[in-house]
Specification:
alpha+beta; 5-stranded mixed sheet; two-stranded antiparallel ribbon; disordered N terminus; DUF3016 domain-containing protein
Length: about 180
């Protein structure tokens, strides 16, 4: 009886500890580099941005930062000085598939095969100052990602970077 009174008084006094904010109530991350700005919309719903060995949130932010910086590097060569590329990403599926090791190691392994191509879905716009000069949406998928040779096979997210670089070159550059 006495324990019940103590619990009731704690709850009524407002001393109860609130549950931590869920991932879905966190604001969508936005990354910027050079003339590229990307909003990563509802990343907790993305098809596959999971890590084999680090926390999901830390890994996502590393992926987002890396892809933004790579796209900005490529965009700086193709866009004029006052032009800016803005994306709103709604889905990402990294190349490969994360598989459990069933006790062989403490981490899962990312298996990269042609049946697991990289994918990214986004809308975009290119601005010239305040004027919108191009707008569109893409659902990129690269089924031939393993057929190309890569100079640096250890480069993180090389397949996704290459897919975005080719999209920028083939779609945005001719119209910008």
């Amino acid at each position: 009886m006495r324990l019940g009174l103590i619990l009731a008084s704690i709850l009524l006094s407002g001393c109860a500890v609130a549950a931590p904010e869920s991932e879905s109530t966190q604001p969508d991350p936005v990354t910027e580099s050079g003339n590229v700005k990307i909003e990563w919309q509802a990343p907790q719903k993305y098809r596959d941005v999971r890590s084999a060995s680090e926390s999901t949130e830390k890994f996502r932010l590393r992926v987002f930062k890396t892809l933004t910086e790579s796209l900005a590097k490529d965009a700086s060569k193709l866009l004029k000085e006052n032009e800016k590329l803005e994306l709103v990403v709604t889905d990402v599926d990294l190349a490969g598939d994360l598989r459990p090791t069933f006790g062989a190691t403490a981490s899962d392994l990312r298996i990269v095969k042609s049946i697991y191509p990289p994918r990214i879905t986004f809308s975009y716009r290119v601005l010239d100052g305040e004027d919108v000069i191009m707008v569109g949406s893409e659902n990129l998928r690269d089924p031939g990602f393993l057929d190309r040779s890569y100079l640096n096979d250890q480069d993180s997210f090389r397949f996704e970077k290459d897919m975005l670089k080719r999209w920028l070159r083939d779609t945005v550059a001719p119209k910008a």
